[in-house]
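User: I'm putting together notes for a lab meeting next week and I want to include a structural view of one of the chains we've been expressing. I don't have a solved structure, so I'd like a prediction I can at least talk through. The sequence is below, exactly as it appears in our construct file.
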Amino acid sequence: MSHHKASTGFTLIEVLIAMTLLGIMVVLLFSSMKICADSWLKGENKITEVNDVAVVYQFFQHHLTTAKPLWDDFSEENKVFAFQGKNKELQFVSSFPASAKKSGLQLFSLKLINDGDEQLIQVSIKPFYPLAKGEEWHLEEVTLLRHVRNFSLSYFGLDDTQPEGFWQEDWLEKETQPRLVKIKIERDDDSYWPEMIVELKSVGMSTTSDGQGLTDEEQAAAEAAAIEDQQ
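Assistant: Thanks for the context. Below is the predicted structure for the 231-residue chain, given as structure tokens.
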């Protein structure tokens, strides 16, 4: 009498079920990895965006707030006030912090330029005072911010016709610096950029329409009114 050994292999149905479960697990695994990668990328982009805002904000706070109301009168032919502001360009004299390697006053020129398919804010830096004989002069150009859709500047200051002050799209051919500079920036990625209003610590001689100097209290009141109008 013969005895048949029981089969120890897998049936076709069991194999199909195992393969189906394995496929589901692989899909879930890769989906989870994609979600993690997307979250990581969004986090990196957010960090980059915050860093860009911080760099631009610190640039204006460190340099523009300490702009000097000086005249470029080194040439007998031309005497130009150093601070010159347009809607998309700005020139002023300031200095680097004591910790920086550069010493002395520097002429900062800031403007929006095209670079291929994108726009960027570029800063050019050169010494304000003429160099002595034998000294080398190098123009430094630094990209402050890339992927800029729109960049605009406006200036609040006192005027002979309107001594209470008002916002202007340019600040040219004047003998004083503005009290405030407003900076608006829009990026290509539609990220939110807060509007910046920078107060200049040194303005120069501010006069009213009758030629009388303004007191600190009057200047402070004008600045406060300008900021309140923007809120």
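A couple of points you could mention at the meeting. The first strand starts at residue 71 and ends at 72. Residues 12-64 form the longest helix (53 residues).

User: Perfect, that's what I needed.
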